[in-house]
Amino acid sequence: MQLFKLCTALMLPVVAGCPSMSGLPSAAVRDEIAPTGKLRVGLAFAPSKTALFVLKDANGQPSGVTVELGHEMGRQLGVPVEFILAPNTGELTNGVNSGAIDVAFMPVDDERKTKVDFGPAYFMIESTYLVRPGLDIKTLAEVDKPNVRVIGVANTATIRAAAQSLKHTPITPVKSVEDCIAQLRTGEADAFALTHDALPPLAQQLPGSRILDGYFLQTGVAIAVGKNRPLALAYVTDFLEEAKANGLVRHALDDAGMQAFPVAAAAR
């Protein structure tokens, strides 16, 4: 598992006008959610920011929606934050499952639920395909043909859903978003499975490419903790529901240039 660790003692202030959860949590909660004394937050990186993916600068420092959420959670817990970066959410799932990561952000699917426990979703995604330039593929059905070479990021909810929906062609796993774009650019692949919100900036890198309408997966992007950690799960659930209610998630999405995308509805 190729993970990149970045330690930080920075604690971002609460968004102006947004109250935080009152007081520090109990020692029992902190011991369960941050057993090493720091909050190890798993993040997936890509060539551009989305509600899920973070962007790394020249020094490897991440920025994006989940960075803001991770900083604020650490501040409210009263512990430093260590960001652990991975090229795909499958590696984050394994890290949370093994105890190497305390909390992570990832799309929800049934396979992941066997390895981690999920708090509430803060964003809803729909997955489709980006078709490389020069191909006359205009619908999801036209992707599902024996001669179409389809790729997706390995061990993710999107690639699993695509594999289930495709009946006439297989989907090949690729390590990262960046590698998938490279294969479209060189003509090694024809269609790349990813979420609608992530594809527009990637399509700009491939003039003449096409984002297909519709979707084969619709699910939430949520916060995850390891199995059998009830205090940690209750804490991250309360944290994220408050972050949605008090405007922190909205602020983080706006900072990432996602003003047009809604925050997921509160759990009922």
Please characterize this protein's 3D structure.
The structure is a single chain. It is built from 10 helices and 12 strands. With 268 residues, the chain is α/β, with parallel strands linked by helices. It has 2 domains: 4-124 and 220-255, D-Maltodextrin-Binding Protein, domain 2 (3-Layer(aba) Sandwich); 125-217, D-Maltodextrin-Binding Protein, domain 2, CATH 3.40.190. The strands form 2 sheets. Strands 1, 2, 5, 6, 7, 8, 9, 10, 11 and 12 form a 10-stranded mixed sheet that branches. Strand 3 (55-56) and strand 4 (62-63) form a beta hairpin. Helix 1 (27-33) crosses helix 9 (230-245) and helix 2 (65-77) packs antiparallel against helix 10 (248-255). Residues 9-20 have low confidence and may be disordered.
CATH 4th-level superfamily of the largest domain: Periplasmic binding protein-like II
Tell the overall outline.
elongated
Q: Would you tell me the overall average pLDDT?
A: 92
Residue share in helix = 25-40%
Oligomer: single chain
Supply the number of structural domains: 2
CATH architecture tag of the largest domain: 3-Layer(aba) Sandwich
Largest sheet: 10 strands, mixed
Q: Radius of gyration, rounded?
A: 18 Å
In the predicted model, the low-confidence regions spanning at least 5 consecutive residues are: 9-20
Secondary structural class: alpha/beta
CATH topology group of the largest domain: D-Maltodextrin-Binding Protein, domain 2
Estimated share of beta-strand residues: 25-35%
User: Tally the helices: what do you get?
Assistant: 10
Order of helices and strands: EHEEEHEHEHEHEHEHEHEEHH
Give the beta-strand count.
12
